[in-house]
Amino acid sequence: MLIWSLATMIGPVCDNKVGIERAFRETCQGIKPTDGMIVGIYDRYSDQPSEDADLVRRFGSEKTA
């Protein structure tokens, strides 16, 4: 299953790092290890691919820990 609703969750809080972290955390907590997650990025002002990868590593590993 591909999770695409993360973009919907992040949209209203994209100017707030706490909100972005919350959206990643809640999404990672609610998916199975075999699910995929698609995240849209706009990296004009920051390195979003790296930031998103860090959040997935951080919150994605909480279920298995």
Order of helices and strands: EHHEH
Low-pLDDT ranges:
none
Major sheet size, sense and barrel closure: 2 strands, parallel
Q: Quick one: how many beta strands? A: 2
Average pLDDT = 76
Query: From the helix content, strand content and strand pairing, which structural class follows?
Result: mainly alpha
Distance between the termini: 22 Å
Outline the secondary-structure elements.
Elements: E1 2-3, H1 6-10, H2 17-29, E2 36-37, H3 48-60
Helix pairs in contact: 2-3
Structure in words:
By secondary structure, the chain is mainly alpha-helical. The protein has one domain (2-60). The chain has three helices and two strands; from the N terminus they run βααβα. The chain has helices at residues 6-10, 17-29, 48-60; strands spanning 2-3, 36-37. The protein has a two-stranded parallel ribbon. Helix 2 crosses helix 3 (48-60). The longest helix is centred in the middle third of the chain and has 13 residues, at 17-29. The model has no long low-confidence stretch (mean pLDDT 76).
Provide a brief overview of the structure.
The protein has 65 residues and is mainly alpha-helical. Strands 1-2 form a two-stranded parallel sheet.
Entry keywords:
48% helix; mainly alpha; globular; two-stranded parallel ribbon; 65 residues
